[in-house]
């Protein structure tokens, strides 16, 4: 005797196929929603910025006159900030990743640290801003200078770099380490000569992605008190500064007073997006170029 | 279970045979293990291993999968310590010194005892860089000396003629068999005393396997070789002594000829005649 009733299968077929198609439609709509929002956003930003982006806009200093205002200070500030964030996150992040993957004994302490690093990646950026304010701006009495901002940002993106580097290091096949140990290499010689060269592409990708996050962050810098006023272009890490997202923020707030400020904000967003796009492209190129199969 | 009974007797018997061999052959002992036991966590992987390995011989270790033969060979250069849950008791003497002693530096041991792995594992670097890796680690920087080492090692591994014109190309461009001989050459570059081989031909085609086997016959003139193999014909062809491992114990250890013609243990006979494993 058969258990599957052919007549019942036929009867239920219609409703099963209907639910099947319903699911497909709903999920497509969910995808389209995000896409539509993105297109609208890009359209608005680009249409507002048309006619405002030119070489003067990039090279001029900040000004209250919308026609003379430029973002040289903000771009320079962003670059200075990166000069602090990049080396600090690289040394601390890669160092932590090497320790956790290669040296730390697998156990409760290691998994405790691991959990905390993963959780740290989810801590709101404004909390890091408060940390930076307490630790660097007031604690070390640095004031709201590039060094303080950079260190705060470095802390913020550190978990991202640690996790990405750990994954890159873990992906280095064990047999390469064995080959090195088998010839009498020490742990450090193995790390330096075998593990890091093989993990570098992954580490660099993580680093660039972390930097592009640091470029876009605003909240921590608001908290540590980056000024909105016209200020001189910084020429060392001990100078006060502003960055592009801060510039966007203040222009957007003040656009109630001077409507052209909205266009300036849009133009800055376009430049910021271009920089981010460029950095992510570099990350992808590095990943593809160095991708090795073992 | 019939297989499990009388194990202690067999071990004693095997030990006695080993001692007799030593007196007869009178070759220098390279490795001497005494009541070696090893646990992975609670898993008792090696049980009371008493083996003596002699100079300038090929010692083959055979046995079914999971019998502890790979574990044993990895214990000889303490590679097994890369696994964190390993516990070892007993003693391993290498050239009369206990290598399990805290004062014996594992890096030094692995300079004397090279290893060739199951899967060819060259570094993703040039052929030249692969060979000089070991010497560089041990502090040799002189380009002329390094060049000499590269040629000598590659000749020693019978691969020089095939690669001499492309020393600076990536090692991953070589065939599997060539990669394995490159790995042997890389091992020779450190000028070891013993070479451990963990199923070195299991990933190779028959022709490459033959080349590696011929190479081993050459190498044993200068080195002592301990090889783990799944292939019993291989053990019979290339080795002077054979140890049969089963469930973490040495069932029988003796001259290869004897093992394959007149094994003294029923289980050895069953295994080599293909009745199990």
From TrEMBL, chain A:
Keywords in alphabetical order: Cell membrane, Membrane, Plasmid, Transmembrane, Transmembrane helix, Transport
Compartments (UniProt record): Cell membrane
Organism domain of life: Bacteria
Pfam families for this protein: BPD_transp_1
Record has Cell membrane as a keyword: yes
Residue ranges constituting the ABC transmembrane type-1 domain according to the UniProt record: 75-283
Topological type in the membrane: Multi-pass membrane protein
Membrane-spanning ranges: 71-100, 112-136, 142-164, 194-215, 264-286
Residues annotated as signal peptide: none
UniProt xrefs under CDD domains: TM_PBP2 (cd06261)
Keyword Transport: yes
Coiled coil: none
InterPro entries: MetI-like, MetI-like_sf, Phosphate_PstA
Family: Belongs to the binding-protein-dependent transport system permease family. CysTW subfamily.
PANTHER family: PHOSPHATE TRANSPORT SYSTEM PERMEASE PROTEIN PSTA, PHOSPHATE TRANSPORT SYSTEM PERMEASE PROTEIN PSTA-RELATED
Name of the protein this chain belongs to: Phosphate transport system permease protein PstA
Origin species: Robertmurraya mangrovi
The encoding gene: pstA
């Amino acid at each position: 005797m058969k258990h599957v009733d052919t007549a019942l299968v036929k009867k239920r077929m219609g409703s099963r196929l209907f639910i099947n198609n319903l699911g497909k439609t709903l999920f497509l709509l969910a995808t389209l929603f995000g896409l539509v929002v993105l297109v609208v956003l890009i359209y608005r930003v680009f249409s507002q910025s048309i006619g405002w982006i030119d070489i003067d806009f990039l090279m001029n200093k900040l000004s209250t006159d919308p026609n003379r205002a430029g973002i040289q200070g903000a771009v320079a500030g962003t670059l200075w900030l990166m000069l602090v964030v990049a080396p600090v996150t690289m040394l601390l992040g890669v160092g932590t990743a090497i320790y956790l993957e290669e040296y730390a004994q697998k156990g409760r302490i290691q998994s405790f640290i691991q959990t905390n690093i993963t959780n740290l990646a989810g801590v709101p950026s404004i909390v890091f801003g408060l940390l930076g304010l307490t630790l660097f701006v007031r604690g070390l009495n640095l004031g709201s200078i590039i060094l303080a901002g950079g260190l705060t940002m470095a802390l913020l993106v550190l978990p991202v770099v640690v996790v990405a580097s750990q994954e890159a290091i873990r992906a280095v096949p064990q047999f390469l380490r064995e080959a090195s140990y088998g010839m009498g290499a020490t742990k450090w010689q193995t790390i330096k000569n075998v593990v890091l060269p093989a993990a570098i592409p992954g580490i660099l990708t993580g680093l660039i992605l972390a930097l592009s996050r640091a470029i876009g962050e605003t909240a921590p810098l608001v908290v540590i008190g980056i000024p909105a006023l016209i200020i001189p272009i910084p020429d060392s890490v001990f100078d006060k500064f502003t960055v592009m997202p801060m510039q966007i923020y203040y222009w957007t707030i003040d656009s109630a007073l001077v409507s052209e400020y909205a266009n300036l904000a849009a133009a800055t967003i376009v430049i910021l997006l271009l920089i981010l796009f460029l950095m992510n492209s570099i990350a992808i190129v590095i990943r593809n170029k160095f991708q090795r199969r073992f | 279970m019939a297989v499990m009974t009388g194990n202690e007797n067999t071990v004693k018997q095997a030990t006695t045979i080993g001692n007799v061999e030593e007196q007869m052959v009178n070759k220098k002992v390279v490795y001497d293990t005494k009541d070696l036991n090893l646990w992975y966590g609670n898993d008792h992987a090696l049980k009371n291993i008493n083996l003596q390995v002699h100079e300038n011989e090929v010692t083959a270790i055979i046995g079914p999968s999971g019998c502890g033969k790979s574990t044993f060979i990895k214990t000889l250069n303490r590679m097994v310590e890369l696994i964190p849950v390993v516990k070892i008791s007993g003693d391993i003497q290498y050239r009369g010194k206990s290598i399990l002693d805290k004062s014996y530096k594992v890096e030094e041991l692995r300079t004397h005892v090279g290893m060739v792995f199951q899967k060819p594992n060259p570094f993703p670097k040039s052929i030249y860089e692969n060979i000089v890796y070991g010497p560089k680690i041990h502090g040799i920087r002189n380009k002329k000396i390094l060049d000499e080492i590269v040629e000598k090692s590659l000749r020693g591994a019978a691969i020089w003629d095939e690669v001499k014109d492309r020393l600076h190309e990536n090692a991953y461009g070589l065939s599997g068999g060539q990669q394995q001989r490159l790995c042997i050459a890389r091992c020779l570059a450190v000028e070891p005393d013993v070479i451990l081989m963990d199923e070195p031909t299991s990933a190779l085609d028959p022709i490459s396997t033959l080349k590696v086997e011929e190479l081993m016959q050459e190498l044993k003139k200068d080195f002592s070789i301990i090889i783990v193999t799944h292939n019993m014909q291989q053990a019979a062809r290339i080795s002077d002594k054979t140890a049969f491992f089963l469930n973490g114990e040495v069932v029988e250890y003796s001259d290869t000829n004897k093992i394959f013609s007149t094994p003294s243990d029923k289980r050895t006979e069953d295994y080599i005649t293909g009745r199990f494993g």
